Amino acid sequence: MFELETDIMLSDCRVAQICAIFALPPELQCLRHDPSDEYTHLAYLKLFTPFKATSEKYTRLYTVSHSYQNMQWKALVIPLSHIVRSCHLVGVPIHGVG
Questions:
Q1: pTM of the model
Q2: Would you say 49 and 65 are in contact if contact means Cβ atoms under 8 Å apart?
Q3: SS3 for the chain, per residue?
Q4: How does pLDDT run across 56-88, given as a tens digit for each residue?
Q5: pLDDT digits (tens, 9 = 90+) for 8-37
């Protein structure tokens, strides 16, 4: 399996689309579990499916798709510092649809 330079395995990562980067105002920051937490900037993400154990046979690329739950795109808010790296997604046309 592909290994990232930070010793984080690909299986530990998830592709996501960053929709917003924000910080809570001080009056809401105090309501967090640990108000003194250094992770003050947050990211609102829309998730893609987890990576499969192996890449595609011919392209050696990993495939992901939008991750849905109850017909809604799964979303998540995480500390901005938890984002490991950027990646490029290549759209593949679906033949026979339309």
A1: 0.72
A2: yes
A3: CCECCCCCEHHHCCCEEEEEEEECCHHHHCCCCCCCCCCCEEEEEEEECCCCCCCCCCCCCCCCCECEECCEECEEEEEHHHCCCCCCCCCCCCCCCC
A4: 888 888 888 889 999 999 999 998 888 988 888
A5: 777 778 899 999 999 888 788 777 777 666
